Amino acid sequence: MIVAIGSDLVSVERVRGVYARHPERFLSRHFTPEEQAYALAAADPAPRLAVRWAAKEAFAKVWGEPLGWRDVAVTHDGRGSPQLRFSAGLERALAERGLAALVTLSHERDYALAFVALVTQPSPRTP
Prior knowledge:
The chain has 127 residues and is an alpha+beta fold. It has one domain: CATH 3.90.470.20. It is built from five helices and five strands. The chain has helices at 12-21, 23-30, 33-40, 46-63, 88-96; strands at 2-11, 72-76, 82-86, 99-107, 111-120. A three-stranded antiparallel sheet has the order 1-5-4. Strands 2-3 form a two-stranded antiparallel sheet. The radius of gyration is 15 Å and the shape is globular. The model has no long low-confidence stretch (mean pLDDT 94).
């Protein structure tokens, strides 16, 4: 069951500007090492950074409690589909509440968009 849906739209040019002015500080403060490596593997990292920023913002909207930028990371599964990975504390909080998060991402030349759905996890069956 869907508990909450959040979205965020980010200007790629705005992220490009922040990254150009403060590259090391921007990366280390907002993105995990894995996210940084993925973004920096592209000729232009701004779209990849912007869409990850949007995903973090969208998750923050559905979570509704304070969290750090690096508590949420965007990764990919074996097929390349985006996934959210969480810090240990946030992962524990989600599990205690029986919740999971789903994410979808999109970016074009000017904008990056993310939608996050917070959903209930089915209870494990006991024999």
